[in-house]
Amino acid sequence: xxxxxxxxxxxxxxxxxxxxxxxxxxxxxxxxxxxxxxxxxxxxxxxxxxxxxxxxxxxxxxxxxxxxxxxxxxxxxxxxxxxxxxxxxxxxxxxxxxxxxxxxxxxxxxxxxxxxxxxxxxxxxxxxxxxxxxxxxxxxxxxxxxxxxxxxxxxxxxxxxxxxxxxxxxxxxxxxxxxxxxxxxxxxxxxxxxxxxxxxxxxxxxxxxxxxxxxxxxxxxxxxxxxxxxxxxxxxxxxxxxxxxxxxxxxxxxxxxxxxxxxxxxxxxxxxxxxxxxxxxxxxxxxxxxxxxxxxxxxxxxxxxxxxxxxxxxxxxxxxxxxxxxxxxxxxxxxxxxxxxxxxxxxxxxxxxxxxxxxxxxxxxxxxxxxxxxxxxxxxxxxxxxxxxxxxxxxxxxxxxxx
Length: 403
What we know:
Helix content: 40-55%
Radius of gyration: 22 Å
Number of helices: 18
Shape: globular
Number of domains: 1
Distance between the termini: 55 Å
CATH class: Alpha Beta
CATH architecture: Alpha-Beta Barrel
Largest sheet: 8 strands, parallel
Order of helices and strands: HHHHHEEEEHHEHEHEHHHHHEHEHEHEHE
CATH superfamily: Aldolase class I
Structural class: alpha/beta
CATH topology: TIM Barrel
Number of strands: 12
Oligomer: single chain
């Protein structure tokens, strides 16, 4: 028989540990998010559906995006035991300069629509955390204002080739004058992908006030108040536009661009050149032969060609194909630090994240972006230690299997 008795107060007191109340609602909210998917759920609650869907969605049936996530989920790690991992480094060379973490912030358009602090908030976090940030041609903060927001950050400029080549030349000149380190040329948008969520939502810049958006605004009043009481939302690198986003892309971007145009780019840009949107081994070889300093294996986050190749699966063969001629980076589907580690173990020199930090931005502005980096860094470090690895360069195919 178990002898029972009423507990004494002095026995209960040590067990009653009340958590101090945090009066800051943003900090309280973000502290509850322990993973990027949890930040995503916060973003969904705080952002109008059309804006969330622009970030979250992909092209057509969204098969490319689902396949990319499925590839990361199928990764099997191969840990090695009994290694000293007490002193761990996540420093990763990107274009010959160390990034403090093995990822950079990918270029994303319309960022101030997600949350009005926008690109300036993202670049400030990048500067504090020692990682690069790529500003999109379709950004909603100017090249110069982003540079001023964080002079210490490593800044890259992402360029789409426009039908009006003089406009592209002007953007490159402005980026060079503002101290941007590298040019990221995106090559997978001869036309806009069919982003059906955006079409169904009537997504536009600035957002149109329709019955649907007004009804949605009633459930997201803080987002609308923030939008309407801050500077007007507009593209920073082009004049105002009244049509749909797809029509804008089709009107601006040049479908006649070929490999020969890389010579024109090189004549205008004398810094490092990164080519984003590589999806086949042949194209990887072609741009490496043309002198690209880095290539990004990417299907645009699944937002262009549906059923496109899964970038993660291209990594090992691409590394073998290009050798040491150019750095190989990868994006699309990365939502955890374990995903980052898996990509590097398979052969990528580094990775880029986009949706991950945008979910943070929507969930809590600049502090939300910082929270996203906190989550990713903790996951990277924990995964490395559990694999028995204490620096990024030691990661290799012996640590990972991709069925």
